[in-house]
Structures are given as C-alpha cells and as structure tokens.
Amino acid sequence: MFAHDELFHAFLIKYAEIGIKGKNRYLFEDALLNQIRFALKDADGEFRVRKESGRVYVEALSAFDFDEVVERLSRVFGVAGICPMVQFDDHGFEEIKSRVLEYIGKIHPEGNFTFKVQTKRAKKSFPMESGEISAALGEAVLEAYPSLRVDVHEPDVYFYVEVRDRINLYSKVIPGPGGLPVGTSGRAMLLLSGGIDSPVAGWMIAKRGVKIDAVYFHAPPYTSERAKEKVVDLARLVSRYAGPMDLHVVNFTDIQLYIYDQCPHEELTIIMRRYMMRIAEKIAEEAGALGLITGESIGQVASQTLPSLACTNEVCAMPVFRPVIGFDKQDIVDIAQKIGTFETSIQPFEDCCTIFVAKHPVTKPNVKIIRRSEERLQEKIGGMVEEAIRSREILHIS
Ligand code: ATP
Ligand code: MG
User: Residue of the nearest CA to atom 14 in ligand 1?
Assistant: First the structure.
C-alpha cells in the first residue's frame, strides 16, 4: 500500500447545492472557504484554500496527514465530495499520459474494472481537444493495463483529467456531508441540554448553513459542575461542524425554586420550559439570532406531547425550529453516533429538568390554566428573569 499523502498534495472540493445560487454564489463560495480554513486551522501541516473559476481547491504546502485532512473536510457543510488530486505542470500530452498510467498503477491496483476518461480542457492553448485527449489516454490505459475495459455509459471508475494552468488528475470522490456552508443562512440559538437530541438538532440546522449559538440552563447545586462540563463538551463536538459558537450558561436555580414554591407540581415542567423559551428568546434577540432550535420530538416525553409543545411554543414570537420533531429516538441516536455526540450525551449526569420532575406531569396542559398558574409568579419573576439573563456566563467555544 502506498502512502496517500505522498501521492496527493491537493484536493478538489465538490459542492453541489451552492453551485446553483446565482448571484449569491460568491458569498456561498467565500463562506465555504472560511469554513474549510477553520476546519484545517489546527490540523498538521500548512494548506492553501482557494477558489478558481468555480472550483475550490485545498492544496498542501507542507507534509500533512491525509486521513486527518479528509476527516476534517468531511465535517464541512457545503462539501459534497472530496477528491484527492494529483497536480502537475503542463509539459504536454506525453507527460499527462505517463502520469495517468503511474496513477492507475498506484491507486487502482485491483486491475479489473471498467473505466472512462473524462477530460476537461480549460486551457485553450493546449494543442489537443478534450475528446482527443480522452480517447488517446483511454487507448494508452488499455494498452498498459489489458485487464481493464472501457465503459462509456456506466464505468466503475472515472478518470478525470483537467487541463488548466496545471493539470489535475483524480478518480476518487469521498462523500462530504452535503448541506450549505455555515454562515450563509443567518443565525439561530440552540437550547442545548446534556441529552441526545439537542446536539443533533443543532447539527441539523447548522447543516443548512445556519450559524448557531447555544444556551444552557443549569441549576446549581441541584445540577453539578460535571453536568455543565458535559454540555460544554457537547457544544465543542457540535462546533467541529458548526464552527465557533457562544455558549450562554444561565443560572436557572432561583426561577426553578420559585416555580416549585408557587405553582402546582404537575405543571412545573411545562412552566419551566416556558421560562426557558422566554429567556432563550431574549438572549437570541441580543445575539442577532432569528430563531430558536430545540431537540423536541413529538410524544417523546410528557413535555413533548402536541398540547405541551403548543403550550411551550406560545410564549415566544420567534420561530422555533425542531428539526427532529418527526424522528423516532433511534433515528436521532443514529445521527448522534454518526456525528460523535452520542457517547458524551449518555454520560449519566443529572439534568435540570429531571430534579424537580413531578410523578405525574400534565401531558395535556391547558394554556389558560397554565397562564393562570404563572400569575402566581408575578411578584418576582420579571426581576428574576432579568437577573438570570444579566448574570449569564458566556463561554466561547471553538
Ligand atoms: P435532549 O436529549 O435534547 O436533552 P430530552 O429528550 O431530554 O432532549 P427535554 O428534556 O424535554 O427532552 O428537552 C427538550 C428540549 O428542550 C431539549 O432538546 C433542549 O432543546 C431543551 N432543553 C431541555 N433542557 C434544557 C436545558 N437544561 N438547557 C437548555 N435547553 C434545554
Ligand atoms: Mg434533556
């Protein structure tokens, strides 16, 4: 086996959706370049990330770790495919031919597949046309590797040859995560708990190009420092995809105790969730976010029945995005595993909702009744909410 990083010194980055954004295309490309740079920031090696006539290239300027770079690039939203590429200077057709033959010997030693050579000649001063180059290369490949066959309709392998200022040669397309580059779709505020669902929800919205920040409600001493650390760890894991984010840690203890004192216990969770949404919305407004994100899924727990969701939703004017709303738990777990948050999410630390949970929480809250219960909080709650927002801790996660 040869070392990938000896042969490949560059990657062609394919992007699907962002190619079709018309005049906005430049914004999308620039956001993609930024996100790629961020992803490679502390990778081993030095890289140049640049765009050239509708293509994005990552070029290694030093020794680097191939697997590490591919792994990092496959976390950048907007990347549809990562093509490890051999680049060389243009010294005419013979040079291309010998490079292609050498490449096949190294990369595809299995020697029993169908192929097609696809040439794109952007450099019009090159003396052969695209079709001619492909045909001549195909012939040379068949001669050198008699066990290969040409299939122009459904080949197993495409050999792409691009004749530009330099020559690009590639055949492997490693799938990227798809989506849109973060920073192209505005901002939203994720309600991030220590559970399985909310990190997945944040990841899904970030995948659509939304820049996210997060808010976590903790209730010391009922929830421990370790529970908070776990949320910080989750924010870090999400930021590997979503880029740097602010994590707003709100002390919720006094509000929670006050609700516990004043309101019927079976309504505690729902009222608490309404205050979480109200506070999150205020912080979101300050941060310039246009929506909230939660990990709610219909029917998963008492606070996520349709009446409960409606009752929680009613307190905020901002749109609330619930990307996992129709997912079964297992669907969410599958994504959590894929994106690497699952193991952290299942660490057993108490969550501020579970401490005061009633034995029989309401599952069909009546909004009017809940509003009436909340009137019992009138005296102090306004000041407490303000204080919780004012005294929040803001952690910069990257
Ligand atoms: P998760 O796995 O995301 O914790 P869950 O199944 O435990 O979800 P709930 O505890 O009812 O569900 O929370 C529903 C949603 O409310 C969470 O997905 C999250 O977005 C938000 N949320 C709950 N608790 C907190 C908290 N302590 N801080 C911030 N957001 C929270
Ligand atoms: Mg939870």
Answer: 296
Give residue 233's pLDDT: 98
Closest-lying ligand 1 atom to the alpha carbon of residue 294 = 20
Q: Check residue 20 and give its pLDDT.
A: 59
Q: Is the CB of 256 under 6 A from ligand 1?
A: no
Residues in the chain predicted with pLDDT less than 50, given as ranges, are: 1
The count of residues in the chain is 398
Neighbours of ion ligand 2 (CB under 5 A): 193, 195, 351
List the structure tokens of 239: 């930021």
Q: What pTM was computed for the model?
A: 0.91
pLDDT tens track for 196-217: 999 999 999 999 999 999 999 9
Considering only CA atoms, which residue is closest to atom 5 of ligand 1? 195
Q: Whose structure tokens read 């995005």?
A: 321
Instruction: Work out which ligand 1 atom sits closest to the CA atom of 301.
Output: 11
Q: Which residues contact 269 (CB under 8 A, 6 or more apart)?
A: 302, 303, 353, 356, 357, 358, 361
Q: How far is CA 2 from CA 80, 87, 109, 248, in A?
A: 26, 17, 11, 47
Atom of ligand 1 at shortest range from CA of 297: 6
CB-based contact 129:165 (threshold 8 Å): no
Mean pLDDT of the chain: 92
Q: Which residue has the CA at smallest separation from atom 1 of ligand 1?
A: 195
> Is 365's C-beta closer than 6 angstroms to any atom of ligand 1?
no
pLDDT, tens digit, for every residue of 28-51?
899 999 999 999 999 999 999 999
